[in-house]
Amino acid sequence: MTAPLDGLRVLDLSRILAGPFCTMMLGDMGAEVIKVEHPRVGDDTRSWPPFYDGGESTYFQSVNRNKKSLTLDLKAEEGKRILRKLVEKSDIFLQNFRPGAIERLGLGYEEMSALNPRLIYASVSGYGQTGPNRERPAYDILLQAEGGLMSITGEADGISCKTGIALADLTTALFAIQGILLAVIAREKTGRGQFIDMAIQDGQAALMSHAAGNFFGTGVSPGRMGNRHPSICPYRDFTCSDGALIVAAANDSLWDRFARAIGRADLADDPRWKTNDDRVKGREELEAEIDKILAEKTRAEWGEVVSGAGVPCGPVKNIGEVASDPQVLHREMVIEMEHAKTGTLRMMGIPVKLSDTPGEVKLPPPILGEHTGEILGDLLGEPGERIAALRESGVI
To answer: Is the pTM of the predicted complex or chain greater than 0.70?
Structure first.
């Protein structure tokens, strides 16, 4: 069976998370991904704890399956020569160097496009290739802060918080995939590749969507509301006897069913809570009453009752609970593969389910430089003695 991206070759010069997550998902859908790493240290995350037995980083392995690792010193002329040969044979080039850095190496878009006019060259950076902040270094937490996300995340009377995962990086990866695939489609029409300028801050600004709409409409920046929704009530976590349960009574009909299901028809009939607008205005009093009621039983007990009434609800699960969830397992969102150093490796699966051309996990995360000889010899035709000399000199 042919995967959707079979026949596309990706040169991945990115490190850490946004770029590697992007290229992993391209690899999941059939692209051949060559991960270019420094010969001695590799991707930064190879040294980030915790580590599996065998010494491989859990962080690195989580976002680098379906790739081949090629080690190259890009400051050495021989390293640049090899990369240029690969560019001539590739479709997509992705890098997340700080703007200006890769150009100083002579590996910018103009030079690479001259070698291969069909090349799609994607750059992921904190602030983009233009503008006053283009050269600033960036990490996920900075862009969650400067993109607005932290200002609306956290309890109303607490501090601004980042999300529990690196959401700025991960959503940037998804935007980058969109840009790359759009460029692939455009190339079918024009015969040429193009440059993709993907800024993490741009992505975060776009994700503000309805929160920004609230500001544009009122002139007031939304603040933190914890797990509450600014426009719906009740729509948040409530504390049961053994943990938190999310209740999402997102319209008047669901509210009526919810109130009656928990044995409080009086709340359903109370004119103070009849409409969502009324409930939002009086949320403090209403939610306090719901908290008292739900504290009397467990999450499972209330979940059965509330779900039985057709009201969306669910427990706040930890990662272990997610990884053993029957629905998650049924959807093959936890997979296993064998790794030379780690042994049996468990990872999250492929979320996009295609009926005719599904993705597939073929390769475990690579050991540093694992495929260097294969790529240089089989793909580029470098003779064995030259490969040995490159290895001896530290170029690979």
So the answer is: yes
Express each pLDDT in 221-267 by its tens digit. 999 999 999 899 999 999 999 999 999 999 999 999 999 999 999 99
| Domain 235-317 CATH class label | alpha beta
Per-residue pLDDT at 2: 86
| Known catalytic membership, residue 202 | no
β-pairing, 235-240 vs 32-37, is: unpaired
To the nearest 10 degrees (0 to 180), the angle between helices 77-88 and 384-393 is 130
Picking from 123, 130, 146, the residue whose alpha carbon sits closest to that of residue 201 is 146
Q: Are 150 and 208 contacting, i.e. CB atoms less than 8 angstroms apart?
A: no
Cis preceding linkage at 234, omega within 30: yes
Kindly state the average pLDDT of the residues 155-183: 97
* Domain extent listing, the chain: 9-207+351-393, 235-317
- What is the CATH class of 9-207+351-393? alpha beta
Considering the candidates 12, 28, 73, 169, report the single residue annotated as catalytic: 169
